[in-house]
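User: tokens in, sequence out, please.
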């Protein structure tokens, strides 16, 4: 019963989340067509039931976004990713990724859609995450940094000697005075800026979903055959340093020692750039001095009308369509042989044709492939398809209302889809 009560409240979200209602089109939030997986602080991943998926859609309603979050430690409960397995089009976003956390015993959800970040406050948590709140990991709301101790650099140098990649393994060497340890904040990203007479380059280090509490960052070189290049190496536990950030043009013939910056604060103020170290290298017979600095960027929280507009524009473009011989059974139908995916241009035609369809009191004879489901953003709608000669009818599978396509749209419909039925 609870999941239906939650689902009924989602109808009000149809506009903000890319769902439109105009004549024949009455798309509504459809959590039954999503799969939801939560990444927990202990690294475990769990599948979320439909009621929790529906709640996540409700919690990320952009109209509820707040402009600020209180200061204090963040307690991470989990990160939920929704996917739509019924569509065969690879998209960068079908719905915001939701990260649930608490601050001062109040619950929040950070919703991330591409470059759009917003936060909502909630009194409800998904049932599958209730127990996590009592063992949640804590993270500071600030970024801290410190220089490595001599024994830590010695360990870095030894770890860099370990082979990575494919044979023949490159010979890696860590450079002294370039190793730093960061206490990771809850969210945001770090920017390493490399500045020399050759220009400026920025390398980004995002805070990923696994949210490791620490990150070690050091400079090193790789020697392979006759090629020498410098790169940035990172590790979440001071071992291996297998994550590599390579500048676009980091090749050189020789590198000299590095010199650490004279002062480095313990806390990185967001948006401020701090020099870490400089080093000199030879390239094409010319000496170049490279300055490396770090900047911590907090996500810019959006809210209000601009957020609603961007969310609507982004998700309303996520359109897909399926013809199917049998009724869909939620995500269980994702690998069914009776699904017929529709191309992008044909999808646009289907939305346009059904938008223009006129209400009528009757339908035709069921089509050979009698069902059509449209997806837009987090919403969906299924139609029964029927024909009467050249006329094309679509019937709302929920309400039973019939609609007849315009003549020119019916002709194009038959040209596009009748041969595939």
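Assistant: Sequence out:
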């Amino acid at each position: 019963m609870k999941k239906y009560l939650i689902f009924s409240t989602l109808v009000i979200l149809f506009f903000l989340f890319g769902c439109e209602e105009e004549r024949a089109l009455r798309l509504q939030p459809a959590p039954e067509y999503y799969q939801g997986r939560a990444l927990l602080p202990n690294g475990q991943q769990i599948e979320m039931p439909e009621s929790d998926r529906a709640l996540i859609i409700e919690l990320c309603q952009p109209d509820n976004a707040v402009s600020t979050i209180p200061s204090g430690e963040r307690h991470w409960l989990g990160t939920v990713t929704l996917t739509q397995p019924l569509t065969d089009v690879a998209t960068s976003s079908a719905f915001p990724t939701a990260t649930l956390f608490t601050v001062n015993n109040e619950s929040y959800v950070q919703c991330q859609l591409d470059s759009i970040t917003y936060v909502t406050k909630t009194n409800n948590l998904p049932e599958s995450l209730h127990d996590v709140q009592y063992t949640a990991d804590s993270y500071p709301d600030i970024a801290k940094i410190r220089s490595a101790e001599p024994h830590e650099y010695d360990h870095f140098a030894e770890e860099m000697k370990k082979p990575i990649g494919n044979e023949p393994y490159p010979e890696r060497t860590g450079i002294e005075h370039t190793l730093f340890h960061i206490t990771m904040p809850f969210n945001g990203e770090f920017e390493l800026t490399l500045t020399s007479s050759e220009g400026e380059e920025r390398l980004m280090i995002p805070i990923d979903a696994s949210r490791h509490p620490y990150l070690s960052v050091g400079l090193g070189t790789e020697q392979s055959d006759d090629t020498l290049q410098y790169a940035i190496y990172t590790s979440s536990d001071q071992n291996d340093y297998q994550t590599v950030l390579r500048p676009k043009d980091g090749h050189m013939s020789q590198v000299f020692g590095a010199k650490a910056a004279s002062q480095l604060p313990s806390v990185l103020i967001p948006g401020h750039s701090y020099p870490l170290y400089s080093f000199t290298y030879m390239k094409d017979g010319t000496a170049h001095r490279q300055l490396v600095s770090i900047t911590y960027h907090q996500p810019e929280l959006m809210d209000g009308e601009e957020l609603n507009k961007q969310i609507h524009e982004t998700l309303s473009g996520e359109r897909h369509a399926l013809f199917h011989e049998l009724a869909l059974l939620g995500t269980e139908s994702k690998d069914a042989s009776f699904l017929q995916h529709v191309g992008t241009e044909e999808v646009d035609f289907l939305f346009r044709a059904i938008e223009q369809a006129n209400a009528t009191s009757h339908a035709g004879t069921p089509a050979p492939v009698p069902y059509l489901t449209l997806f837009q953003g987090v919403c969906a709608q299924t139609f029964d398809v029927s024909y009467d000669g050249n006329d094309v009818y679509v019937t709302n599978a929920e309400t039973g209302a019939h609609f007849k396509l315009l003549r020119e749209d019916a002709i194009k419909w038959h040209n596009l889809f009748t041969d595939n039925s």
